[in-house]
Amino acid sequence: MKTSVTFPSNDLALAGILFTPDDHIDGRLPAIVISHPGGGVKEQSPSIYAERLARAGFAALV
């Protein structure tokens, strides 16, 4: 599942995309934060990795 999220950090609103397994109902998951490479954006390569990690049972935030 792909969910757009925002959260506060030092008076700024940071935006991200949270990927979770499609069959996840409730409870905790191991989590990974993925940043984009220099010159990239969250919708490009990091999302590809996050989708694969979510299929493997992780929550991944890009």
Can you characterise this structure?
- The protein is an alpha+beta fold.
- The chain contains 1 helix and 4 strands; from the N terminus they run βββαβ.
- A 4-stranded mixed sheet has the order 1-2-4-3.
- Strand 1 and strand 2 form a beta hairpin.
- 11% of the residues are buried.
- The model has no long low-confidence stretch (mean pLDDT 91).
Mean pLDDT: 91
Most strands sheet: 4 strands, mixed
Helix and strand element order = EEEHE
What is the radius of gyration?
A: 12 Å
Please mark out the parts with pLDDT under 50 across 5 or more consecutive residues, or reply none.
none
Distance between the termini: 13 Å
Q: Proportion of β residues?
A: 35-45%
Give the fraction of residues assigned to helices: 10-25%
Shape: globular
